[in-house]
Amino acid sequence: MAGEPQSDCLFCKIAAGEVPATIVRETETTVAFRDINPQAPTHVLVIPRAHYRDAAALAAAVPELAADVLREAGQVAADDKADATGYRIVFNTGSGAGQTVFHAHAHVLGGRGLEWPPG
């Protein structure tokens, strides 16, 4: 069921502390951790603790939780000083867009020039 932890979800396991991750921020509703394959000096994933398949499902079901994820993404950028030169927040939604873990998450990327349009 949406919002409930999924036993086969890597990010649910990270949020529960069952799988190690380099956690940089935690709130009651979110967890932020470093990406294991960083694409920029700052590359942090911000996830809701509750399980929703993707950003669209999260926003439709619990918009205030989607706002928590965005707020924490901004704080991660500030903590890493990426806000001084600019940063990007990316939600990949669906496998065709590059989503590989089907638990809503925001990528916070910064600390280098980011081209447009993205790959």
Overview of this structure, please?
- This protein is α+β, with helices and mostly antiparallel strands and 119 residues long.
- Helices cover 25% and strands 21% of the residues.
- The chain is built from 3 helices and 5 strands.
- A 5-stranded antiparallel sheet has the order 1-2-3-5-4.
- Strand 1 and strand 2 (30-34) form a beta hairpin.
- Helix 2 (55-61) crosses helix 3 (63-79).
- It starts with 9 loop residues before the first helix and ends in a 9-residue tail after the last strand.
SSE order? HEEEHHEE
Low-confidence stretches: none
| CA radius of gyration | 14 Å
Q: Major sheet, described briefly?
A: 5 strands, antiparallel
Report the count of strand segments. 5
**Beta content:** 15-25%
What's the mean pLDDT score?
A: 96
Shape: globular
* Helical content band: 25-40%
* Coarse structural class: alpha+beta
Strands ordered across the widest β-sheet: 1-2-3-5-4
Distance between the termini: 33 Å
Number of helices: 3
Per-chain topology:
Elements lengths: L9 H6 L7 E4 L3 E5 L7 E7 L6 H7 L1 H17 L7 E4 L15 E5 L9
Antiparallel strand pairs: 1-2, 2-3, 3-5, 4-5
Helix pairs in contact: 2-3
What keyword list fits this structure?
119 residues; alpha+beta; 5-stranded antiparallel beta sheet; 21% strand; globular
Question: Briefly, what is this?
Answer:
By secondary structure, this protein is of the alpha+beta class. The protein is 25% helix and 21% strand.
